[in-house]
Amino acid sequence: MELAPPTADECQVWRLPIGAEHWRDFDVLDEGERARHRRFRRSADRDRYQAAHVGVRLLLGHYLGVHPAELRFSRHCRHCGAGHGKPTVAYPATKWEFSVTHSGDWVAVAVASVPVGLDVQETTDGTDVVALSTAVLSPAELRWWRERPAEDARRAFFGYWARKEALLKATGHGLAVPMNTVTLSPPEEPARLVDWAADRPLDGPAQLSDLDAGPGYTAAVALLSPLPVRITRAELPLGVIAAAHTSAG
Ligand SMILES: CC(C)(COP(=O)(O)OP(=O)(O)OC[C@H]1O[C@@H](n2cnc3c(N)ncnc32)[C@H](O)[C@@H]1OP(=O)(O)O)[C@@H](O)C(=O)NCCC(=O)NCCS
Fold first, then answer.
1. Nearest to residue 103, comparing CAs of 45, 25, 161, 146?
2. Residue 3 in domain
3. Residue 150 lies in a domain
4. pLDDT band at 249 (very low <50, low <70, confident <90, very high)
5. What is the pLDDT of residues 231-242, one digit of tens each?
6. What is the number of structural domains in the chain?
7. Which pLDDT belongs to residue 248?
8. Which ligand 1 atom is the nearest neighbour of the CA of 87?
9. Residue 93 belongs to some domain of the structure
10. Both 32 and 83 in a single domain?
11. b/e sequence 105-126, b meaning 16+ C-beta within 10 Å
C-alpha cells in the first residue's frame, strides 16, 4: 500500500512493529502519554503502548503535514465526559478518524474519513469464555454459540468479540453499551449487524469486516457509512516515515 492518506472510499489498516528499538528515535509523545507509558508495569504493555501512540503520531503527522509532536488528541467519553472515550484529533483540524488496537503481538491503527473502529483479540490468553459468554453474547448469539463443537467455540466467541468491540469503538460507545445488547451474524458468516437493542443510539449504518490476523487472533473493522468503504492493509513502512520525519527536522 502506498503511503498516502486514505481516499474517501478507503479505510487503511496499518500494523505497527512492537519493541522500543523501532521507536526510540521518535521523541513525539506529550506529557500525558509519557506518564501513562511510564506507569505500565509489564514491559509488553509498555511496548504496545509506545508502538500505538508513537505510531499514530508519526502516521497522522505525516498525513496532516505537521510535526508528530504537534498533534493534539482529545478523549471525552460520550456518556460520562471522562477522559476514557474515543480518541479524536483535536489539532490540526481533519476529516480523518482513527482507531487503535493492541493485543498480544498486534498493534494496529485504522484510518478513514468516516467513523472507524478496529479491534484485534488474542484467542489464547486464558480468558474463560464460558464465564464471559452471557455478558458478551446476546440471547440469539448464545443459542447459536452453545451448539458449537468445543473446538470451534473459543474462536467463534472471540470472532464475535472482535466484531463487537470494533463496532463499539466506531460508535465511540465503548463498554458503555453492553455487548450482549448487540446481535451480529455468526462468525462463520460475513460480518453484519443483525440487531441493535442497546438503549443508546447507533449513529449510522454499520459495515463490519473480519480481518485475518493469523493463528491465535481474531480481528475486525467497523465503519459507520452508508457508502461502501474498501479496506486496505499493510505493515507501516516506518523507514519512509522516519526519512520524512528526519528531513523535516
Ligand atoms: C474501547 C474498549 C472497549 C477497547 O478495549 P480493548 O479491546 O481492551 O483494547 P484495544 O487495545 O483494542 O483498544 C484500546 C484503544 O481503544 C481506544 N478507545 C478507548 N475508548 C474508546 C471508545 N469509547 N471508543 C473508541 N475507541 C476507544 C483507545 O485508543 C484505546 O487505546 P489507548 O488507551 O492506548 O489510547 C475499552 O478500552 C473501553 O471501552 N474503554 C472505556 C471504558 C468505558 O467505556 N467505560 C464506561 C463508560 S462510562
1. 45
2. no
3. yes
4. low
5. 999 999 888 888
6. 2
7. 62
8. 29
9. yes
10. yes
11. ebbbbbbbbbbbbbbbbbbeee
